[in-house]
Request: fold
Amino acid sequence: MRRAATLLQLPLFLAAQALGKVDINDKPDDNYRPQNVTGLDYFYYPWIGSYYNSSAIFTISDIKPRHDRSDSELELCGQLQNITYTWSHPAILAITETRSEDEQPKNTNPIDVSLFTSYSNFTKYFSDYMDSGNMPEWDMPFVFESIEISRYSYPASTDAEPYFNLTVAEDTGNGLPFRVTGSSELADNPLENLQMNMSTCSRSEGWWGVGPISLANGLDDIDSVTNPTLQLTFDDTSASFSIQSWIVANTLGEEDEETETPSISGRLTIEFLGRIDAARSDVLNEGTPVTWTPSMGFGNNSLSLDYGSGALATAGVNIRQIWITLGAVLAYIFI
Ligand SMILES: *[C@@H]1O[C@H](CO)[C@@H](O)[C@H](O)[C@H]1NC(C)=O
Ligand SMILES: *[C@@H]1O[C@H](CO)[C@@H](O)[C@H](O)[C@H]1NC(C)=O
Ligand SMILES: *[C@@H]1O[C@H](CO)[C@@H](O)[C@H](O)[C@H]1NC(C)=O
Ligand SMILES: *[C@@H]1O[C@H](CO)[C@@H](O)[C@H](O)[C@H]1NC(C)=O
Ligand SMILES: *[C@@H]1O[C@H](CO)[C@@H](O)[C@H](O)[C@H]1NC(C)=O
Ligand SMILES: *[C@@H]1O[C@H](CO)[C@@H](O)[C@H](O)[C@H]1NC(C)=O
Ligand SMILES: *[C@@H]1O[C@H](CO)[C@@H](O)[C@H](O)[C@H]1NC(C)=O
Reply:
């Protein structure tokens, strides 16, 4: 618990560094919304596309002890046997336009997909974050991105390749909804490490670190590992999104050595069933390829992003970069 808290100071330091670099991207043919859109203080909405609100439900199942490690010949204690562990957080799903081919030639996906979660509320997260890196650790969010999404200033990486390959099913004739499947072959599974509370062998509740894995990790002590996959169905009113991955997990900072908890493998699913946030979405057109008619910032629609304020978006903090670094720190747990 204490160790986790210390690790979480690091991204705050990095964020503070990133605050120095401001360079608003105003290329009209890019996937960003026009800069005249004002009044929305969230940093989640800079791209043309559709946004959905709901909760992300995380489930861990099929828990087994890992036996490849010399220090870990432990059996699963009774309280970890046959359990399915579920928790949820408020979440925003962003299905957005990709950057133009010139800007990001290696992104062969038809759309960008991101899932942002917050451990409490998004406004609180945003203001705490802006307020000097004082974000409480329970507000550190899980973020999924199909590709690294750069916010204005972050060196827009033209070399970026997708973390997940996405395919939109061919138009079945009636346009909506769109059906998308995806998978990732990356050895370095692009899903973030995450933390959760679950029973340990010594306590009814303890702090765990969870690391998604893929086939290419070559963890041969775990049977039948497959690559992470995702499914997505969406139209202009709702979206259903899910991710499946194998994971390894350890307790963090468990002090009682006598009733040691083994490291485990299992399955993780992340599910989201959300409604459109119409006030923050552009008009989704029917038929493949997926396109939007930009409405945020156009015509009489003046609501939305406030590029001029001290918004985190303007600061150009790249949340994924922060998490990659945090992930690298957490990763030592899983080696
Ligand atoms: C878990 O399931 C196995 C197989 O069904 C069973 O043998 C075992 O007793 C169960 N453990 C607990 C703690 O219920
Ligand atoms: C979210 O946090 C903000 C800022 O702390 C607060 O003003 C607002 O009431 C909170 N909303 C909810 C639903 O708790
Ligand atoms: C996507 O597909 C290409 C071509 O098959 C492959 O080279 C690449 O590794 C894949 N990317 C991921 C993230 O699986
Ligand atoms: C998680 O468990 C720790 C004890 O390890 C406890 O202090 C904390 O309050 C728990 N958090 C939640 C959200 O239940
Ligand atoms: C969607 O979520 C955002 C962020 O929490 C909130 O500001 C907005 O009012 C929500 N919109 C709808 C339609 O629920
Ligand atoms: C905002 O900017 C866009 C693109 O520059 C322009 O087409 C649109 O009319 C502007 N909207 C408003 C409300 O000024
Ligand atoms: C904005 O324009 C659309 C048509 O272009 C119209 O239907 C709608 O009522 C207008 N909204 C406002 C708030 O004026």
Remarks:
- Residues 53, 122, 277 surround 2-acetamido-2-deoxy-beta-D-glucopyranose (ligand 5) (CB under 6 Å).
